[in-house]
Design goal:
alpha/beta
Length: about 725
């Protein structure tokens, strides 16, 4: 008896054809097996002639008829029951949706609708350029004009040519430079558009640019200078000179000085006069909530409410991943500093990183500082509030996620530790009951030399944050909602990743030193992020510690060819990316790949105190993942020795690797002193062993930079 199993004939979809042919195959095979069984029976019976049948087998048996009928029935059923392809519905174009989309990306239409004639675009990585843009847009009101700050990432910048449709219009660009002369993340598309649209006609567009940068970097204010030059090339009219802000000196001073000259030039160009109204201009209004569902109140999330409870990839600056801290250990054996190594678990996050990338973390302010602010201002920190933009058409509805409590705002969203900028002092001056305090605060916000000197000494040099200012000016007691409106946002902190994803695909390592120092007023200042990270125990009161983070891609990359030698220079925590580089080169070696020489120049103060990652480096040297390890212990002898001195000591090997073997050079650490001194050492090596003049040596190193063979990951 043959068994054909159960046929599921009610299936539809792409798998039915496979099922049908599978059934046919089973039936044929089973019939074949049946015949084979009959033949086996014949052979068995051959030893017994008395049992052999002499009857001839018919041409078509009953089994054949049954199988033919069954297969034919299945085929007919399959064709008859097939689903007809469903027609693709036609959707009519919704004019209303198109119009809405246009309005959202058209800054020109928005300006026309709201009666604005000045737009201030900002390219900002840390929030400073955005802050300056907001200040300039508010300034416009004092000159009878209306301004708006705008993120170029949110608008169609191809509409810039249409700005001339608005009478007396002006585009201001506050552009920060990031990394090696690159645009900030939010200005990347605008930068690409400027480069790719050579035929764009911007005649009739008025513009000016204020650039933000740091002179210690090789490409000082490159982005601002490029935007200024490129807009003019495309036909736009510059109405005031390019402003150059230097964060290494006094960025606030540079901005205030430029701004003081800029507005009179605007008045002259457009034939307008200042209104003479120096009163405070509020941008947001306070709304207090008394019976709001707490599930609708922000508690520290950066973007989507409750995003830390319900995590959804992809993760970025607006949607950070909550990584668990699995390791937090002190690296140095002794000394007064605290150098630490943390490991963040990213299992299941789908986050990918490469050696040389940066990890960004969102810290929180010290609880003690927040409580003190609440006490001085006499407010209930747990009051739930919203600060709503008075300009209903603005894309920025709130200065920080709202609704939330004052406690959350001061803990998660606002920068309360940096010295406030002059515009904050100016706005708060009205709340000082002592006329002398009012006068001094307004003086510090002016461009007068005496005022600048007072701001430099009393605020910047003394490192007075907003709490210190309130403590030292008892007559100053501003409403907390106005203070929250004026304070800048607390920014993410970036660290070079100290691991390789080849070895640690589900873990990101951080190497950092805790910032702590005493100010001129006798107060002890603690670094916001490093103090917060230091206190991130693996287990805290029975709960796992977590860190909101995301990855920022970097150009600081190992050479594509593993055979290229690598020279790494990184004193102190500048070793971080090189820990990952060494891990990766070691992994490649274990895979049987040919790997070029890997040489490390590291520096620390004392061998017995802060020779961090000593065991890891020595193990890598033993396994030949690291072919050269040179360490400068700067304070273990009378005369200080730094990494640049070791470079000169090994000049022959360095020149051989660089000039003859296409070595890649990597520098990580302090930009102001170390990076410059190291670069000078390379100039001197090129001069001495390459027979070059200083000018030629400088050009030689610059060509290495252009080719991606001299890379820097530095900070000031």
């Amino acid at each position: 008896m043959l068994t054909y199993g159960t046929l599921q004939l009610g299936w539809y979809g792409p798998g039915r054809r496979k099922v049908f042919f599978r059934i046919v195959r089973v039936l044929v095979l089973q019939k074949t097996d049946a015949k084979s069984a009959d033949m086996a029976g014949v052979e068995t019976d051959a030893t017994h002639p008395e049992s052999m049948a002499t009857e001839e087998e018919p041409l078509i048996s009953n089994l054949d008829l049954f199988l033919f009928t069954l297969i034919a029935g299945i085929v007919i059923y399959w064709f008859m029951s097939r689903k007809k392809p469903e027609p693709i519905p036609e959707f009519k174009k919704l004019d209303t949706l198109t119009a809405t989309s246009t309005r959202e990306t058209s800054f020109v239409e928005k300006m026309k609708k709201t009666g604005k004639n000045i737009i201030v675009f900002y390219g900002s990585q840390t929030g400073t350029a955005e802050e300056f843009a907001n200040r300039l847009s508010k300034d416009a009101q004092r000159y009878g004009m209306k301004g708006m700050a705008a993120d170029p990432e949110e608008y169609d910048m191809a509409e810039l040519s249409r700005l001339s449709e608005i009478e007396n219009s002006l585009a201001i660009f506050c552009m920060a430079t990031y990394g090696e002369g690159d645009p900030t993340d939010n200005a990347q598309d605008f930068y690409d558009w400027l480069q790719e649209n050579g035929e764009e006609d911007l005649s009739g567009v008025n513009f000016t640019v204020f650039a933000l940068g740091n002179k210690t970097y090789e490409h000082y204010n490159a982005m601002g200078a490029y935007v200024d030059k490129r807009l003019e090339e495309l036909g736009a009219k510059r109405i005031f000179d390019l402003g150059m802000g230097d964060d290494d000196a006094n960025l606030e001073d540079d901005f205030v000085s430029w701004r003081e000259q800029f507005w009179p030039a605007v008045c002259e160009h457009f034939g307008v006069e200042a209104l003479g109204d120096d009163s405070s201009i509020r941008q947001y209004e306070l709304k207090e909530h008394t019976d709001l569902n707490m599930n609708k109140v922000y508690s520290g999330e950066i973007g989507r409410i409750k995003s830390f409870e319900n995590q959804k990839p992809p993760y970025d600056a607006k949607n950070p991943f909550l990584a668990t801290v699995t390791v937090n250990r002190k690296l140095n054996k002794a000394g007064g500093r605290h150098l630490m190594h943390l490991e963040l678990d990213i299992t299941g996050s789908k986050i990918r990183y490469e050696s040389g990338d940066h990890v960004a973390v969102f810290p929180t302010n010290d609880t003690a500082l927040v409580i003190k602010l609440g006490q001085i201002l006499g407010v209930d920190l747990d009051s739930v509030i919203s600060l709503n933009n008075l300009d209903e058409e603005s894309n920025k509805k709130h200065p920080f996620p709202c609704p939330t409590s004052y406690r959350t705002a001061l803990t998660h969203y606002l920068d309360i530790t940096h010295p406030p900028r002059t515009n904050v002092l100016y706005e708060l001056a009205q709340y000082a009951s002592d006329p002398k305090d009012q006068e001094n605060m307004r003086k510090m916000a002016s461009s007068a030399p005496e005022g600048k000197a007072l701001y430099q000494s009393w605020v910047l040099d003394a490192c007075r944050n907003i709490l210190a200012i309130l403590e030292d000016l008892p007559s100053l007691r501003p409403p907390i909602d106005h203070l929250c409106e004026l304070l800048p946002r607390l920014q993410a902190r970036y660290y070079s990743i100290a691991s390789s994803s080849k070895i640690h695909p589900n873990s990101i390592h951080i190497c950092a030193v805790v910032v702590e120092y005493e100010t001129k007023t006798g107060r002890v200042q603690h670094g916001v992020a490093t103090t917060w990270l230091k206190n991130k125990s693996v287990v805290d009161n029975g709960h796992k510690s977590t860190v909101p983070m995301f990855i920022r891609k970097s150009q600081f990359r190992l050479p594509f060819k593993a055979t290229n030698p690598v020279i790494m220079v990184g004193p102190g925590t500048g070793i971080a990316p090189f820990v990952g580089f060494i891990q990766e080169r070691g992994w490649l070696k274990e895979q049987g790949k040919e790997v070029g020489e890997t040489v490390m120049f590291f520096g620390c103060r004392h061998e017995n105190e802060d020779f961090i990652y000593q065991e890891e480096l020595e193990e890598a040297k033993k396994k030949e993942a690291l072919t050269g390890l040179h360490v400068a212990f700067s304070r273990d002898q009378e005369e200080k020795v730094y990494v640049q001195h070791l470079l000169r000591n090994h000049k022959e090997d360095i020149w051989r690797l660089v000039h003859s073997q296409n070595a890649h050079i990597y520098i990580c650490g302090d930009a102001k002193n170390m990076a410059k001194d190291v670069q000078t050492a390379f100039y001197e090596i090129a001069e001495e062993l390459g027979g070059l003049t200083r000018t030629q040596a400088t050009d030689y190193i610059k060509k290495l930079m252009t080719k991606g063979r001299y890379s820097q990951d530095v900070w000031s």
